[in-house]
Amino acid sequence: MPSEQAAAGERALAERLRSSLRGEVIDRGHPGYDEARAVWNGLIDRRPAVIARCAGTADVVEAVAASREHRPVVSIRGGGHQVAGSGVCDDGLVIDLSPMKGVHVDPSARTARAQAGVTWGELDRETQLHGLVTPGGEISATGIAGLTLGGGLGFVMRTFGLSCDSVRSLEIVTADGVVRTASREEEPDLFWAARGGGRGLGVVTSFEFDLHALGPEVAGVLVLHAQERAEEVLRAWRDATYTAPETVTPEILLWSVPAGPAIPPELHRSNCVMVGAVYGGPPDGGATAALAPQRDLGPPLMDLSGTLPYVTLQSANTWRFPDGERYFMKSHFMEELTDDAIRTLVDWDSRRPTPESLIVVRTLGGAVARVGPDDSAFAHRSARYNVSIDAGWRDPALDEAAIGWARSAWDAMKPFSSGGTYVNFAGLGEDASELRGAVFGAHEERLERTRAAYDPEGLFAPAARRP
To answer: Which one of 41, 136, 388, 448 has the largest count of C-beta atoms within 10 Å of its C-beta?
Structure first.
């Protein structure tokens, strides 16, 4: 519990916010406090002093003004789906954007404006009415804000780029309380930093995205192979990625067979290798030939490939990552996937502590690599792969074992890494100082200059230091 002096400061902050916000202000005594402070990752248990649930940009301006006056630690919550739980802080102010759900699609201009509390599932629902997409993540419950600000790896990135590559402009409230539009023409340094630079620049309240023609049906590969063939399948898959066209975004997962209705019960929760790929064009025509190398990797346990609605694809894995369970994810970017790296991955796959834990290898290149290395703050354009070690579990008694497995597997893969780490899969708060250079690479100094220019008093500095 806070001291008497700290409690008085918290009450003053809450009163200041209640006097000026249209949205709800939640303090420690509010009946909805525990629900409001919870995020997707059940491992995160932080207790902020006040949560300002903003109804719009004007509320954000008032929350930033109150922060300047009272100087609490500030965190910014969008969708609340980030692994490290950086959207909530202890004993400070959460500027909560989750009520801000507006989406407007202009099908003629092929653009969408979405507020920062929108999730990818909510955005896809609106854009797919017109057969349009902007590249998002792989879990529909993920918020658009955090994923995009960190870069945005996803199912169609080789065809359309990262999520941040489709940002045309964004609205951001900076530390001085000014509402700014950042684009290539306006506030270009801020625009550069917001595309891959993570948090700590201000409070982004909305994004304008370019949209691309795709859907409503898309073609995809999902083939399950026996774990005993893991090394063989990984080597063949790696070789197939070298010649994959930009219309194909391949990935491979060392995981457990889901208990889905289309899968025989005897396979449920058994360890396997999953080969996945999405075709970023119409499912007829060239899709079959382009995807064939991803399907032809030897005799499968099951082949679930075919066509499906894009919104179904984007939500297909969401049920396997439910709210409130415990997660830890840490990643490497890699230039090559050598035979030794493959053997190391398979070895650590055999030690997975729970069926929910997995190892994912995603393929970059294509449209991701065509963006200039210094065109945005995302620092890993040249990488061919991202390898993510993802621990998932339910029982708090497994915390040490699950996190220990993920950290040890990440350490074992470090010799094969390019030295880069994806900010959205960068461990927990205690990993931040170790990984800072790995996350931002050669762009770190320019990012720091940009943050200092827009936030000279460091109002958002604690947010900038989080993973």
So the answer is: 136
